[in-house]
TrEMBL record, chain A:
Originating species: Subtercola lobariae
Keyword flag Cytoplasm: no
InterPro entries: Bact_Polyamine_Transport, MetI-like, MetI-like_sf
Domain ABC transmembrane type-1: 72-262
Protein name per Swiss-Prot or TrEMBL: ABC transporter permease
Keyword annotations: Cell membrane, Membrane, Transmembrane, Transmembrane helix, Transport
From TrEMBL, chain B:
PANTHER family xrefs: SPERMIDINE/PUTRESCINE IMPORT ATP-BINDING PROTEIN POTA (PTHR42781), SPERMIDINE_PUTRESCINE IMPORT ATP-BINDING PROTEIN POTA (PTHR42781:SF4)
Name of this chain's protein: Polyamine-transporting ATPase
PROSITE patterns documented for this protein: ABC_TRANSPORTER_1, ABC_TRANSPORTER_2
Pfam families assigned: ABC_tran, TOBE_2
Lineage: Bacteria, Bacillati, Actinomycetota, Actinomycetes, Micrococcales
One cellular component (GO) term of this entry: ATP-binding cassette (ABC) transporter complex
GO MF assignments: ATP binding; ATP hydrolysis activity; transmembrane transporter activity
ABC transporter domain boundaries: 13-241
Length: 274, 399
C-alpha cells in the first residue's frame, strides 16, 4: 500500500516537528533570563561580561555595588504608591463610567484610551515640559505622578470589564436590605470587583516597575531600577543587578505557582464538599 | 434603619397619581392604589404591563416621574431604599454570589443590628426547607432553591411591607402550594402587608384578599377575587382572569331590574345591577362553567337565557371537565365547561345543541364596543404567552 508509509512518515514528522519547534521557541525566549540568572553567580569585577568563576557573594552582598539597592528601593516605592493611587482612582472612574449617565461620559471613555495609544516618548516628554513650565522639581514625586497617569488607563479598562459584568440588581438588593451606600459598596460591589481590581493592581505595578522611557524624562537625578541598568549598561552592568533581576523573576514565578496551587486545592475542596 | 427591632405590624401603602416614564416609553400612566395594612394584595397582569416597575417604585429603586408614595401614612417618595420599611423578593433572585446562603439571609438583619442574626437566618432557612444548604454559595443551588433563598432573605426581616415579584415562579406545583401556605401563615401571624406580583391567577385567587388586574401600566379592575371573577368590568379582565363568553348587541329593552340585549333573532337578559352600560351597543358576558348544554330545545323559562341551536365544533376532554365549543348563528363561538358527571363527553362534534344560563350569572362590561376587541386581544396574547412559556418580547413590541 503506497499510501500507508507516506502517511506514516508525515505523521512522524508532525509528531517530532512540534516539540522541536516549541523547544526552540522556548530556548529563544528563555536565553536572556537564563543568562541573567547564571551571570548573577559570576565572580566578576566591575564588568560582568566574561565568566570568571562561580560565587554566591553577589547574592549575599547585593547592596555592595553602588546605586543598585537605592534604585531598586526607588522602583518599589514608585511602583507601590503609583499602583495604589492608580488603582483607587481608576476603579472609581470605571464604576462611574459603567453605572452612571453623565455628560461627556463617552468622551471621557475615549480620552482614557489615549495614554495607552500614545507613544511613551511623547507622553514622557509632554509631561516633562509641563513640570518644567510649572517649575516642579523632578524627583520621586514626579515619577509617581507620571506612573499614576499612565497606569490609570489600564486600571480603568481592566476594572470596567468587571463592573459591566456585575448585575446591578445585586446592589439594589443590598440597598433594599437596609444597606447604606457605604455598606453596599464595601460588602457587595467591592468584593465582587476584587478579581478585576487585583488584576489591575498587578498590571499597574508591573508597568510601573518596568517603565524606563517616561521615567527617564521625569526623574531628574533619581534613579529607578530600569534607569540604573540603562545607565550602567554603558559601563557594564554589575552582577548585583542580575541578582535583583533574578530575584524579582523568581518571586513572580513563586507567586504564580502559589496562586495556582491554592486555587486547585480550593476547587478540589469545593468539589469534595458537594 | 438602625432600629434593631422588627416591625410590630404591617403598614398600609398608598400610591397617589404615580406616573413612570422611561426615556421613550411610559411604563405607568397613572396609578392610584391603596393597600390597607395587614392585607395580602395581589397584582396580576400580562408580561410587560408594569408590575415590576410598580414594585421598584415602592421599594425606592426607581423614582416616579410624578406622584407620591406613602407607607404607613408617611410620604417616602424621596427617601432612599434602605430607609424604607420594605423588603423585596426579586424576580431575578439577586442573591449575593460571594456570600454563603446563610450570610445572604443574615445580610438585612446585620445591617439593622438585629440580635442573633445567625439563629434567625437559620430559622428562615428552615421555613423554606433549605437549612441543610446554609453553608453553600448560591451559584451551586438549583433555580427553585435560589428562589427560596431569596424568599427567606426577604421574610427574615419581617418588614412592614413585603414586595414579592413572582416569588414562586420557579417552583414545582407541590412546593409552590406548600410555600403559598407558609407565606400566608407568616403574613397573618404578624399581620404584615404583602404586595404579591404573579402570573398565576390561581395563586392570586387563593392567596390574596384583594386582586388588582393590571394592563399596559394601568389598573383595569381591583377587588376581592370572587368579585373580580364573577363581575369583571372589562373585556380584558373577563378573559385574562379565566375565560368568558362575550356577546355584543343593541339594548332592546329595560325594566327596573333587567336589561335585554338583542343578539340577532335571540336576546339575552342581564340584571341591571350587573350592567354598568345601559343603552346603545353594549357587551354582556357569561362564564363558560355557568352554561348548561342541552340536546333538545328547552321550553322558555323566566330567569334563564337560551341560545341556539348551534353545532358542536370542538370537544376537548381535560379530566375533571370537558370543554365544548359551539358555533351558534348570530352569537359566534360559545364555550361551555361541563363537569364530567358521566363517562366521557355528553355530545360529540356535529351534534345540534342549545345552551342556557341563569340571568343572574350574566354580567355587562364597562368597555365601549371598540375597546372590547382590544381587551380580548390583549388577554389572548397574555394567555398565549403563558401557555408557551415565552417571556415579554412580543407583548413589549405591541406596547
Ligand atoms: N429601565 C427601563 N428603561 C426603559 N423601559 C423600561 C425600563 N424598565 C422597564 N421598562 C419597560 O416598562 C415596561 C414594564 O416593565 P416591567 O418590568 O414593570 O414589566 P412586568 O409587568 O414586571 O413584566 P413581567 O411579567 O415580564 O416581569 C416594559 O415594557 C419594559 O420594557
Ligand atoms: Mg416583572
Amino acid at each position: 500500500m503506497p499510501a500507508g508509509p507516506r502517511r506514516r512518515s508525515r505523521i512522524r514528522f508532525r509528531g517530532l516537528g512540534l516539540p522541536i519547534y516549541t523547544a526552540l521557541a522556548l530556548i529563544f525566549l528563555l536565553i536572556p533570563i537564563a543568562y541573567t540568572f547564571v551571570f548573577s553567580f559570576n565572580n566578576s569585577g566591575k564588568l560582568n561580561i566574561a565568566w570568571q568563576g562561580f560565587t554566591l557573594d553577589k547574592w549575599t552582598h547585593v547592596c555592595d555595588a553602588q546605586g543598585v539597592c537605592e534604585a531598586f528601593t526607588n522602583s518599589i516605592i514608585v511602583g507601590v504608591v503609583a499602583t495604589v493611587l492608580a488603582t483607587a482612582l481608576g476603579t472609581a472612574i470605571a464604576i462611574a463610567l459603567v453605572r452612571y449617565r453623565f455628560r461627556a461620559r463617552s468622551l471621557i471613555s475615549l480620552l482614557l484610551f489615549l495614554p495607552m495609544a500614545t507613544p511613551e516618548v511623547v507622553l514622557g516628554a509632554g509631561l516633562a515640559a509641563q513640570f518644567l513650565s510649572l517649575g516642579v522639581n523632578k524627583g520621586l514625586g514626579t515619577i509617581i505622578i507620571a506612573h499614576t497617569m499612565f497606569c490609570i488607563s489600564f486600571v480603568v479598562v481592566t476594572v470596567k470589564a468587571r463592573v459591566s459584568s456585575l448585575d446591578p440588581a445585586l446592589e439594589e438588593a443590598g440597598r433594599d436590605l437596609y444597606g447604606s451606600a457605604a455598606a453596599v459598596f464595601w460588602r457587595i460591589t467591592f468584593p465582587l470587583l476584587v478579581p478585576g481590581i487585583a488584576a489591575a493592581a498587578l498590571l499597574s505595578f508591573a508597568l510601573s516597575f518596568d517603565d524606563f522611557i517616561i521615567t527617564n524624562f521625569n526623574s531628574g537625578a533619581v534613579d529607578t531600577f530600569p534607569k540604573f541598568i540603562y545607565i550602567a549598561a554603558a559601563r557594564g552592568i554589575p552582577a548585583e543587578a542580575n541578582v535583583i533581576a533574578s530575584a524579582v523573576f523568581i518571586l513572580a514565578i513563586v507567586i504564580v505557582v502559589v496562586a495556582q496551587v491554592t486555587r486547585a486545592a480550593r476547587a478540589k475542596r469545593l468539589a469534595r464538599l458537594h | 434603619m438602625a432600629t434593631g427591632t422588627f416591625a410590630e405590624k404591617g403598614a398600609d401603602l398608598e400610591l397617589v397619581g404615580i406616573q413612570k416614564r422611561f426615556p421613550g416609553f411610559t411604563a405607568i400612566e397613572s396609578l392610584d392604589l391603596f393597600i390597607p395594612e395587614g392585607s395580602f394584595f395581589a397584582l396580576l397582569g400580562p408580561s410587560g404591563c408594569g408590575k415590576t416597575t410598580t414594585l421598584r417604585l415602592v421599594a425606592g429603586l426607581e423614582e416616579p416621574t410624578a406622584g407620591r408614595i406613602l407607607i404607613g401614612g408617611k410620604d417616602v417618595t424621596s427617601t432612599k431604599p434602605f430607609q424604607r420599611p420594605v423588603n423585596t423578593v426579586f424576580q431575578s433572585y439577586a442573591l449575593f454570589p460571594h456570600m454563603t446562603v446563610l450570610e445572604n439571609v443574615a445580610f438585612g438583619l446585620r445591617r439593622r443590628s438585629i440580635a442573633s442574626p445567625v439563629e434567625k437566618a437559620h430559622e428562615a432557612l428552615r421555613l423554606v426547607e433549605l437549612d441543610h444548604l446554609a453553608a453553600r454559595k448560591p451559584g451551586s443551588l438549583s433555580g427553585g432553591q435560589q428562589q427560596r433563598v431569596a424568599l427567606a432573605r426577604a421574610i427574615v426581616n419581617r418588614p412592614a411591607l413585603l414586595l414579592l415579584d413572582e416569588p414562586l415562579g420557579a417552583l414545582d406545583l407541590k412546593l409552590r402550594r406548600q410555600m403559598q401556605l407558609e407565606l400566608k401563615d407568616i403574613q397573618t401571624e404578624v399581620g404584615l402587608t404583602f404586595l404579591h406580583v404573579t402570573h398565576d391567577q390561581e395563586e392570586a385567587m387563593t392567596m390574596a384578599d384583594t386582586i388588582a388586574v393590571m394592563n399596559k401600566g394601568q389598573i383595569e379592575q381591583m377587588g376581592a377575587p370572587e368579585e373580580l371573577y364573577e363581575l369583571p368590568r372589562t373585556a380584558f379582565v373577563a378573559n385574562f382572569l379565566g375565560q368568558s363568553n362575550l356577546f355584543t348587541g343593541q339594548v332592546s329593552g329595560t325594566t327596573p331590574d333587567a336589561l335585554t340585549v338583542a343578539l340577532g333573532s335571540a336576546s339575552i337578559t342581564v340584571p341591571v345591577a350587573r350592567a354598568p352600560r345601559r343603552s346603545g351597543t353594549v357587551t354582556v358576558g357569561v362564564r363558560p362553567e355557568k352554561l348548561t348544554l342541552l340536546t333538545s330545545a328547552p321550553v322558555a323559562e323566566a330567569g334563564r337565557n337560551v341560545l341556539g341551536s348551534g353545532r358542536v365544533v370542538d370537544v376537548s376532554f381535560s379530566g375533571v371537565s370537558t370543554q365544548y365549543v359551539i358555533a351558534i348563528p348570530g352569537a359566534g363561538d360559545v364555550v361551555v365547561f361541563a363537569q364530567n358527571m358521566v363517562f366521557g363527553p355528553v355530545v360529540h362534534v356535529g351534534a345540534e345543541v342549545w345552551v342556557s344560563w341563569a340571568v343572574e350569572h350574566g354580567f355587562g362590561l364597562e368597555d365601549a364596543p371598540d375597546e372590547v376587541a382590544a381587551g380580548v386581544h390583549d388577554a389572548a396574547v397574555a394567555a398565549g404567552l403563558d401557555d408557551s412559556g415565552f417571556d415579554s418580547e412580543p407583548a413589549l413590541e405591541k406596547a
